[in-house]
Amino acid sequence: MLNIKYIQENTEVVKHSVKARELDVDVDLLLKRYEEWKKAKKDLDDLRREKNLFTEKINEARKQKKDFKKFVEQSKENNIKLKETETKFNKLDEEYNALIYKIPNTLHKDVPISLVELMPLICFDVASKASFRLNLLSKAGSGTITKEAPAILENKI
After folding, report:
1. The pLDDT value given to residue 126
2. By C-alpha distance, which of 22, 25, 93, 36 is closest to 11?
3. What is the C-alpha to C-alpha distance for residues 134 and 153, in angstroms, rounded to an integer?
4. I need a labelling partner for 57 at 20 to 30 A (CA). Which of 2, 13, 85, 95 fits?
5. How confident is the model at residue 139 (pLDDT cuts 50, 70, 90)?
6. Widest Cα–Cα separation across the chain
7. What is the pLDDT, as a whole number, of residue 78?
8. Does some domain include residue 109?
9. Same domain? 142 vs 76
């Protein structure tokens, strides 16, 4: 799994990898969900901090034998907001995790995207009905691989 910071910094590389692997993953949607997830996480943390502050205020008021009912009411309102925010956060967390786990590792820049891009690099030389030679042309030179099963080769193409 790729780190979200890497995905943010190398969006085009990640999109290339997704396209090359012919996956149905929207990288832009992932980044959008991540921003929403971050905001929801911050809101959730803020509400939890407020909850802790209300608890401290209630305990201090009890110790000093002061009226603490206003803090209790504020705490109840905060708890309602907290539950709503937790529900929203959990939903965003599921969506975000589902998307990020679909993102593949990045491919090397020389990996072709599809067979259409690969075809100029491949030259078929028919030696006989039972034997095919596949010449792969590359920057380093050419190599020859002999395949005895033309049916297998035809299925791969």
Report:
1. 39
2. 25
3. 9
4. 85
5. very low
6. 100
7. 94
8. no
9. no
